Structure formats: structure tokens, C-alpha cells
Amino acid sequence: MFSKLFAESGLSLDRLRAFLAVAASGSIVKAADADPVKQSQYSRQIKELEEFFRIKLVERHGKGIQLTSNGKELARISRFFLLGLSNFQRGCLAEEQTFRIGASTTFIQQFLLPVVSTAKVIQGDTRYIVEVVSDDEIERRLHDLTLDFGVITRGAISRPLQLKELGKWRLRLWVPSALHRTDKSAALAFKDRRLPVVVATKELEACGIDLFGDHNCRLVCDSFLQALDALREQQVAAVLPDFLNSFGGAKSFVRVRTHGIESHVQCYRLAWNPRLLRLNPHASRRKDFLCKALTEQMLVRSE
User: Fold this and answer.
1) Backbone angles phi, psi at 38, to 5 degrees
2) Residue pLDDT, tens place only, 91-104
3) Do 196 and 251 fall into the same domain?
4) pLDDT tens digit string along 56-72?
5) What CATH number does the domain containing 118 carry?
6) Within-domain flag for 5
């Protein structure tokens, strides 16, 4: 069945591992940690793979490299194969399982960390690596199997990736009472583009929301949590998710109800690659645990 595959030399696990290391770093120098001996070895091993398959796997791109279409396909197949072997080895040795989860800064702090840092989880046999990752990067890395799970706000994702809804939320406009004492006054200032606003650009863009291009955006930041910190200084208004609602009393801040903002219903969704679940039975249990625990955590924060 595999006689032709092994009829020639040039294919080995070590060569595939080196190829994946270079593909992940985008540079032979980075993959080899600037070690000249390793650089020469990695270059030779990639060349041997190209000769074996009789195709071009990498191309020079500035000071680094980028994968050809064939290179991307070989990387996907190799990663899938080596991940399966690695999971099998860990199971045979009864080693702990490690899962990498990507999400926005706000979701990680508000929902994910409270779930994966409980005593039961910490004392269990599973380790989590948490990363701040954009929706686009989550989707790409789930396909590449360099990320096990991701939490995104978009409602659709490319096949074969799958989604599970965790919870809905809406945006709210909060204005320091030091700027406006009534919601009517604040609403008028917002309508007239006179209200100084802090905007969490990256997380709003992930939600597909662009409402503030011509507003008085005095401060632009990445996350809702950064916008919340700015709001607490009581010099700018902020658009925040409704689950970020414990930042001061009614005397300190005014909620301004605007249809243009509050009509946007958002949703966090857990995303995963079903191929991972076939490779690693433990991943299926982790997926079920995360879906249940994160949904419950979102319900608690919305109360």
C-alpha cells in the first residue's frame, strides 16, 4: 500500500519536523535560533523533501520564506500526522494533555480565566495555554491545528470548522456624569459628535461594528478592558459590552440609550476543528467542558 512512498530516500519524520518548524516561524534563521549549523541542516532537509516530492515547498519572501500552495498542503498533512503521533505517545505514557485556546483580551479576562483557573482544573491532568488572538488568526490556526480551540464573535466560519454559541451580549454607551449629568444631554452631545469617546477598535472591528468614524474619538485602544480603564478616569465616554457593568454607581456614570449602538446583538462562540477531536479523544471532552463552563460563566456575568 505504501511501497512507492518508501521506495526512495528523502522522507523522514525529522525532515517533516524541520519543515514544520520553518513553516511556523516563517524563517530558517528563526526556526534554527540563529544557529548556523541548524540553519544549514534545515535548508538541506527542506531541499531533500522538495527533491523527494519533486515540487517547490518554500519561496523566498524578503528576509524570510513563505510556503507555496504545495508547501501549505504538506504542512497541513504533516501537522495532522505528527499531532496524532504525539497524542498517541502522551496517552501511552499517561502524560498530561495540553490545549491551546485563543480569544480576545476581554473574553480571556472576563470568562476564560475564571473557568480554567479553578482549583479543580488546576489540580487536574489538563494544562491550558491561553493566547490573545484575532478572529481571522483563530480561524487560520484552527485549520492548521496550531490552535485547539478559539472564541470568536463572527457567526460563520469556513468548513470543516464548527461553532457552538456560548452567550449573547449587547453594547452600551456610558458617559461620566462629570461630563453630562443627564442621559438626554449626553445623547444630544453624542448625536452632535461633541461627546469625547474612547473606542476599542480591534474588538469592535471583530464584531463588525464601525459606528464612530466621524465621532469625537479622543482615545483609540485595542480592548474593551482598556476602554473601561479610560472610562473610570471620567474624562471620556465609552462603548462597552453589557457584561462590563460593575465600574461605578449611578451617580458617577450615565447610560445613554441609542438604537444605533444597542441594536447590535453580539455573541461569543467556541470554535474548533473536528479533525482534532478525531485525533485526540481528550479534545472532545475538553470541548464539552469548555462549552458548558463558559456558557455558565457568561450567564453569571449577565445577571
Assistant:
1) -65, -40
2) 777 678 899 999 99
3) yes
4) 999 988 888 899 999 99
5) 3.40.190.10
6) no
